Amino acid sequence: MSVDAEQYTMDEARRLLGWWIEAGVDSPVGEEPRHWLKPLRAQVAGAQVPIAREIAPPSPAELPADYEAFRAHLEQATGLPLDRDGARRVLPHGLAGAKIMLVSEMPAREDAADGQPIGGEAWLLAVRMLAAIGMAPDDAYSASLACFHVPGGKISEAEMVRCGDMARQHVALVKPERLLLLGEAPARAMLGEPLARARGHAHKVEGIRTVATFHPRWLLQRPGDKALAWRDLLLLMDEL
Question: Which overall architecture, per CATH, does domain 63-237 show?
Answer without folding.
Answer: 3-Layer(aba) Sandwich (3.40)
